[in-house]
Amino acid sequence: MSEVRILVGTRKGAFILTSDEKREQWEISGPHFGGWEIYHLKGSPADPNRLYVSQSTGWFGQLIQRSDDGGQTWEPVGNQFLYEGVPGTHQWYDGSQHPWEFKRVWYLEPSLTDPDTVYAGAEDAALFRSTDGGQSWRELPGLRSVKGHLWQPGAGGMCLHTILLDPDDPNRIFVAISAAGAFRTDDGGQTWRPVTRGLKSDYELPDPNAEVGHCVHSITMHRSRPGVLYMQKHWDVMRSDDAGESWYEMSGNLPSDFGFPIAVHTHEPETIYVIPIKSDSEHYPPEGKLRVYRSRTGGHEWEALTKGLPQSHCYVNVLRSALAVDSLDSCGVYFGTTGGQVYASADSGDSWTPIVRDLPAVLSVDVQVLP
Amino acid sequence: MIRVVLPAHLRRLARLNGKVELQVDGPVTLRSILDALEATYPMLRGTIRDHSTQQRRPFIRFFACGEDWSHEPPDAPLPDAIATGAEPFLIVGAIAGG
Questions:
Q1: CB contact under 8 A, B7 and A58
Q2: 3-state SS assignment for residue A176
Q3: Which tens digits make up the pLDDT trace of A208-244?
Q4: Whether B72 contacts B56, CB under 8 Å
Q5: Cα(A259)–Cα(A335) distance, rounded to whole angstroms?
Q6: How many beta-carbon pairs below 8 A join chains A and B?
Q7: Structural domains in chain B, sorted by start
Q8: pLDDT exceeding 70 applies to what percent of chain A?
Q9: Nearest Cβ partner of A80 from B43, B51, B57?
Q10: How far apart are alpha carbons A269 and A245 in whole angstroms?
Q11: What is the model's pLDDT at position B17?
Q12: What mean pLDDT do residues A84-94 have?
């Protein structure tokens, strides 16, 4: 029988939740690294027991932890993230130019084929890569040359928070950066270009159609169709059918098209999940009802999934990396909230149960299925 | 031997149960203590001072013999009581209000 392992990053440590494939009874391990902010932890697709963790605090800075046994033991690895060459400057809140300064790692994306290769998305925004299991990190500086001087931090910081590796083309990578946009490389990270045509940010940018500056919250793809991308932008849920060359809106009948995460069903490439949030000034669900919305038509038409979720007085948020799906035949969907709940659905979102209710604020959720 | 007291998070990171004792050759200064500490416990690199600039992280403080040494030059000699091990050298996480 398969085992399901959920990796949860929170404001005060990491938690690992495990169950068999019925996903009814869960064992909870943690906190690992208690008291530290865990922005992200993720397992290697090539070796599921190889886990990488981004661990940080304002006091002691950034650490990267690695496990080779599925989270039973951990080893701190390299934590030196140096921008290549002269770091340069980006736009600051007052319009002046401000030097790039490393603050933390928001996102870790292990290679699809090599457990020792892993990408790290940083604040201030940059992409780093390790090919020695996290011991050392090198920046892929071409990304910041794409009008980096025009990027500026949003309220959450100038963070590179999404990394998507194309399963069909090892040289193609997509990244997303808050208040900077979406970018693609086709040569393994040497050169990059914005992939933002069709994005429109009427209330965030002076030029709503600007090439850079869009506040992209998250992007996802289905492994069987890496040219089809789904995006939750600050406002607007978007879709691209040509690997980001152009985007069109598919918000349809959502009660709000503001939100953070977006996910796609493991076995149905046209089934998408978002969690609408009322607005960018009120980071909680519309009407105090926590609802996951599912489209089975590739966007435009959405249904509310509410069974088992609080439908009154709920004012949590669900952050960009806190929604994940598993690969079991009956697709599991999981998300964590800033209120410390982790909800699970073993039936593609039709019904939900909380696995835990009182964790620290959840920053990230990832899931693995183990043989 | 120099005695060093670390914040709880760093003790756990370095897998220490109590105080740290370090052998420091030459003048006993902030820099020589931190160099010895990081050489013995490499996982602490970057957590107390910046990898590149060697500047103290903003929310770290250094106390010696009841005095705050956080703003002193890194090569200034520390008090004899630290150098002889009579008093511990304290590395402290600054108070965060709230």
A1: no
A2: strand
A3: 999 999 999 999 999 999 999 999 999 999 999 999 9
A4: no
A5: 13
A6: 42
A7: 2-93 (3.10.20.30)
A8: 100
A9: B51
A10: 19
A11: 82
A12: 91
**For residues A229-246, b (16+ Cβ closer than 10 Å) or e, as one string?**
bbbbbbbbbbbbeebbee
**Contact with chain B for residue A79, Cβ under 8 A:** yes
Question: For B36, left (φ over 0), alpha (ψ -120 to 50), or beta?
Answer: alpha
Tokens 């959450």 — which residue?
A: A156
Instruction: Say if residue A128's pLDDT is above 70.
Output: yes
* Both structure tokens of A90: 């980006």
In 3D, which of A265, A256, A290, A261 has the Cα closest to residue A274?
Answer: A261
- Report in angstroms the alpha-carbon separations of A219 from A209, A299, B30: 19, 14, 46
A63 touches chain B (CB under 8 A): yes
DSSP secondary structure, A196-246, as one string: -TT---TTT-SSTT-SS-B-EEEEEEETTEEEEEEEEESB-EEEESSTTS-
CA distance A270 to chain B (A): 45
Give the residue from chain B lying closest to A61, CA to CA: B47
How far A84 CA lies from chain B's nearest CA (Å)? 13
- Interface contact B10, partner A, CB < 8 A: yes
| β strands within B36-98, DSSP E | 60-64, 67-68, 89-93
At A78, which amino acid appears?
G
Integer Cα distance of B86 and B89 in angstroms: 10
Pick from A36, A61, A82: which is nearest to B57 by CB?
A: A61
Q: Six-digit token pair at A205?
A: 């940018």
Of B28, B34, B35, give the one whose Cα is nearest residue B81: B28
Phi, psi of B81 (to 5 degrees): -65, -30
The tokens describing A346, both together, are 């073993």
What the block records as the tokens of A9 is 């990053």
Contact between B46 and A80 using a beta-carbon 8 Å cutoff: yes
